[in-house]
Amino acid sequence: MQRWRGLEATPADLGRTVVTIGMYDGVHRGHQSLIGTAVARAQAMRRPCLLLTFDPHPAEVVRPGSHPAILTALDRKAELVAELGVDAMCVLPFTPEFMRLPPETFTHTVLVEHLHAAQVVVGENFTYGHKAAGTVDTLTAEGRRFGFAVEGIPLANVDDDEVTISSTYIRACVAAGDMASAARALGRPHRVDGVVVRGDRRGRDLGYPTANVESPPFTAIPADGVYAGHLVIRDPRGGTARERLPAAISVGSNPTFQGSRRTVEAYVLDYAGDLYGEHVGVEFAERLRPMAAFPDVDALLEAMAQDVADTRRILGM
After folding, report:
1. For the whole model, what pTM was predicted?
2. Distance of CA 308 to the CA centre of its chain
């Protein structure tokens, strides 16, 4: 998949495209349906499918200090949309200047002049331009003027529920530690990506060496607690998974030892290798228990042994 940042970096030989637009944070089941439609339209027209997204999150520019928790960083998002058949991804810097573009200027400058849209596929609630004044209806009218078609896709619900699948809903599930609901909406386990860094090595001393995963700012971290899941060792060059290993995962500040820094640590079951410096993803399958402060090390070790046993049971080991 081709990928570039900024309109000025758009390949000169791009040709006409089918464009889908959005933050696509999480690339959840609703996103997957929308992107699937765009890919199908592109294949029928024999044109590339181009996904247009933004960085940073528009909320941070519109309301500074309100940056939401991020479900998928740009590299992970690119990996996921490529798997869905997207041919190219353009990342537009969302700046105060860009925020003030009138809808018609966005349409002409971005979609027509640079991305050469032949068709645009968006969610039915899509808005764009200054103060979100542009809607699917205005985009459709501008499409007739500039020579591209527009298709608005209905929003998806969680299974037979009335709850609409959205990044906001999934963030709430993650923040509550409800990994089963998050996974249903995502279509896969929620994952925290990062690099394994050196911690205080206390786990090693206790007989449970952990991979301390340092993630980017604003990452959506589940509620404090202990989880069953997996550690995915990634290829740092392409982001693809090299290994997927069962793990008991701790999220919190180690209250038994009066810790103050919140961390994500994964104890990989039946593994003796060195993970320092590895690019990894931590996948959360199920919450085992809340984080707790234990009266002594023996009580902590007893709980950790039970966590490992519960992880094996949940993962079918």
Report:
1. 0.91
2. 27
